[in-house]
Amino acid sequence: MQGSIEARVSHEVDRWLAWLPRWRPGTHRARVRLCTRCFGSPILTAAGLDVDVPHPVQHAFSMRMKGIIDLAVDDYTARNLPMLHREIRLAEERKARRPYRAGEGLEPEFLGLDVDPEPVPDQPFLFTLSGLEADAAAEAAEPAPRPFTPEEKEALREEVRLADDFAKQLGRRICVELAQHRYRIGNAVERLVEPQIEDLLADLDRELDSPGWPS
Q1: How confident is the model at residue 188 (pLDDT cuts 50, 70, 90)?
Q2: DSSP line for the chain
Q3: β-pair partners for 123
C-alpha cells in the first residue's frame, strides 16, 4: 500500500471534506433497516460523527476509511497468506465473469448501500437490480470448486484469523489517527450539514402550521 496509514487517513478525510459540500438531505422515505457498517462504528465515534449526523454523511466517511483497511489487508494477504490470497483471487475472477454486477464502480459514498429501494407492501416491483444480478449469476453458474480437505480448511481458517486480526489492528490505528482530524471534521459538519438540517426542519414546521394541514 502506497504511503503511511497517517497519510492515507489524511488523504481520505480531505476527499470526504471535498465531497461534503455536494451533500443534500434526502426527501424520500428513509430505509428502516440499520446500516451495519455505520451503526456502532468505532471509526465514526473517533471522528465525532456518531451522534446527530445524517447517515449518508456518516456512510460516505465510513466507506472511505474502510477502503484504507481493505487495501492494506489485501496487501498483507498477498504477501503473507498465500492460501487465502488464492481463494480471494479465484472468487474475484468468478465474479468478474458475471455479465451483470449491481453496484459495480460506485463512488465510496454509495458503496455498501442497498441498490434497491425499500419494498412497499402490496406494491411489488417489476424488477430489482439485486434480482437482475441474481438471475445473471444463476445463468452464468460455474462448476463448484473442489472441496477443501480438513487440513486445508484448518489452514484457511488460520489465515482468515490472521487477516481479521490485522484488519482490527489497522482499524484501531485509524481511530487513533482520526483524533488529529476531529476539529476540521466537526467544523465542516457545523458549516455544511447542520444548516441544511435546520432548514429542512423549518420547512416541516411551516407545513405543519399551514392552514391546509389536517388538524
Answers
A1: very high
A2: --S-HHHHHHHHHHHHHHHGGG-----SPPPSSPPTTTTT-HHHHHHT-SSS--HHHHHHHHHHHHHHHHHHHHHHHHHH-HHHHHHHHHHHHHHHTSS--TTTT--GGGTTS-SSPPPBTTB--S--HHHHHHHHHHHT--PPPPPPPHHHHHHHHHHHHHHHHHHHHHHHHHHHHHGGGHHHHHHHIIIIIHHHHHHHHHHHHHHHHSTTS--
A3: 120
pLDDT value of position 121? 79
- Closest to 111 in 3D by CA, of 172, 73, 66, 155: 66
**Tell me: the pLDDT tens digits for 164-175?**
999 999 999 999
Which grid coordinates belong to 84? 487465502
The count of C-alpha atoms lying within 13 angstroms of the C-alpha of 180, restricted to the half-sphere facing its C-beta, is: 12
In degrees, rounded to 5, the angle at the alpha carbon of residue 53 between the alpha carbons of residues 208 and 118 is 70
Q: How many angstroms separate the first and last alpha carbons of the chain?
A: 60
Q: Go through the chain and tell me how many residues it has.
A: 215
**What is the average pLDDT across 14-41?**
84
pLDDT tens for 109-140 read 777 777 667 777 777 777 677 776 777 677 66
Q: Does 213 have pLDDT greater than 70?
A: no
Q: Where are the domains of the chain?
A: 5-21+36-115+127-143+172-209
Phi, psi of 49 (to 5 degrees): -110, 15
Check residue 212 and give its pLDDT.
59
